[in-house]
Design a protein that fits this description.
By secondary structure, the protein is mainly alpha-helical. The protein has 4 helices and no strands.
Length: 60
Amino acid sequence: MKGKRYTTEDKTRILREADGGKAIHEVCRAHNISEVSFHRWKRQFGMMEINEARRLKELE
């Protein structure tokens, strides 16, 4: 069974929630993702802003 596919903007928005002070496990539980996925996204998109993520998606 496949899970939900998150857009690049969604991924950066979820990462910003954890930067805002929420615990990582709480953010993962709220969005129904694994902590492994969260850390993978953080490695890929960690310092990006949402508008930069949109530009990256357009370039791809």
